[in-house]
Amino acid sequence: MPTTAEARAISPDLPSRVGDYEAFMDERVRAHIRRNGLQVIGYRHLKALMA
């Protein structure tokens, strides 16, 4: 996943974010998640629960 100088400037942890994204897009990881009955949620879901 290519990144821009702007993205790197506003997000010092960009390499970690890119790594997370790439891991979750890997079909082997997705299959493992499904096999184990896990549900991946995003921050919006957490924010709604905390409101």
What would your notes on this structure say?
The protein has helices at 5-10, 14-25, 27-35, 43-50. The protein is flat. By secondary structure, the chain is an all-alpha fold. The protein has one domain (5-50). It contains four helices and no strands. The longest helix has 12 residues, at 14-25.
Strand fraction equals under 5%
Please count the beta strands (DSSP E, at least 2 residues each): 0
Largest sheet: none
Report the end-to-end length measured between terminal Cα atoms: 33 Å
Rg calculated over all Cα atoms: 14 Å
* Helix/strand structural class: mainly alpha
Summarize the amount of helix as a percent range: 55-70%
Mean pLDDT: 90
Order of helices and strands: HHHH
Question: Which parts are unreliable, with pLDDT below 50 for 5 consecutive residues or more?
Answer: none
SS field, number of helical segments: 4
**Count of distinct structural domains:** 1
Overall outline: flat
